[in-house]
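Please check what follows.
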Amino acid sequence: MKALTVDDSQTVRVMVRNILEDNEIEVLEATNGREALQIVQENEGIDVILLDWEMPLMNGYEFLTEVRRHKLAENTRIIMLTTLKKMSNILQAIDAGADEYIMKPFTPEMVIEKIESVLHN
């Protein structure tokens, strides 16, 4: 399995990488939506993207809408992983094509449960 974690916080990327690698998941990383878009275009077989919302250059919502609008990574599941907790943000992300939503702070169990949930639905 291959995952892409997209977050401008190096600390969060390292935490997510450790969780995923502990579960034998290959990890790619991007610091913003623009980098993530390039990675998606250059790498096939990304199963899941863990995506922060608030980032410079291209935020997570902009990345999400771009990927879904242009049918990039059509079989890839996208999980928003963010501090934005308003129901309006959650609904906006789901409407734009996010498969799931995790609020920070998170636990390793939460991340793995959500990944398993989106990949088996």
User: Anything to note?
Assistant: The radius of gyration is 13 Å. DSSP finds five helices and five strands in the chain.
